[in-house]
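Quick one, tokens below:
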């Protein structure tokens, strides 16, 4: 199963991506979480706290034309093996990093290496049995520029507001341009059935599921904690557990663990 989570800023996509990654790992899957968002979020939702590390900086080099690339001998599997970090429930996290005072310049090597890893994942047999959950930045840009070529499902997180719906429709149109990609809309911060109906009508599409507005999610965010650690029995977690099961059903994979190990490739 390979998913990318997208949506308008503030829709809750990092919470969805991080929580789903851990819930899928608890179902026996080997899970790689990919964070291509320069804003903090996924590492917190995975239970690691805020991480700014440019994880692939040591895997990148410049070619003769001054362009960044992965170092020779480093493929996707080796990059994951050497440079990802372990999160709770056995999830592996790989990110290109978060800008600090110096801006994006120190991250460019890691960023370009990350993009190349994302594009090599589909051809890497060592990781073929792994579940991949990507967290993309707000808006349609990375979907348009092919930052998640590994994804078979784009989960578009939508809030019950017109701005969020319009953004979701645009992102959905762009994602559908990918070969064989399925777009699934996930309603988040829903107050009741009326919200769900209005969102489905405005999206002109069915919803994968609805995640209720949950005070626990807001408090976990305020504290900088993973929702799954702060309130494991919360309504939002219960809804996302249902989403995990539905994704397994739609992917036709079931809750069977992958057999592949990360090799030195």
């Amino acid at each position: 199963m390979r998913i990318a989570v997208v949506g308008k800023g503030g829709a809750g996509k990092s919470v969805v991506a991080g929580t789903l990654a851990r819930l899928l790992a608890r179902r026996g899957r080997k899970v790689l979480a990919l964070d291509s968002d320069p804003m903090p979020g996924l590492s917190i939702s995975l239970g690691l706290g805020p991480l700014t590390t440019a994880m692939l900086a040591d895997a990148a080099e410049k070619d003769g034309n001054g362009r960044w690339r992965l170092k020779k001998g480093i493929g996707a599997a080796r990059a994951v093996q050497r440079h990802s970090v372990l999160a709770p429930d056995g999830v592996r996290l790989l990110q290109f990093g978060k800008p600090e005072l110096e801006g994006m310049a120190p991250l460019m090597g890691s960023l370009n290496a990350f993009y190349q890893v994302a594009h090599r994942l589909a051809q890497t047999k060592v990781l073929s049995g792994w579940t991949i959950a990507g967290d993309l930045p707000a808006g349609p840009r990375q979907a348009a520029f092919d930052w998640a070529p590994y994804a078979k499902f784009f989960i578009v997180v939508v809030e019950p507001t017109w701005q969020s719906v319009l953004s979701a429709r645009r992102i959905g149109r762009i994602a559908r341009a990918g070969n064989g990609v399925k777009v699934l809309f996930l309603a988040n911060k829903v107050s009741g059935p009326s919200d769900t109906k209005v969102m489905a009508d405005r999206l002109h599409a069915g919803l994968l599921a609805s995640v209720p507005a949950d005070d626990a999610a807001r408090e976990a965010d305020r504290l900088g904690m993973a929702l799954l650690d702060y309130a494991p029995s919360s309504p939002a977690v219960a809804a996302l557990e249902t989403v995990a099961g539905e994704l397994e059903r739609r992917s036709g994979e079931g809750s069977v663990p992958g057999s592949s190990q990360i090799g030195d490739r």
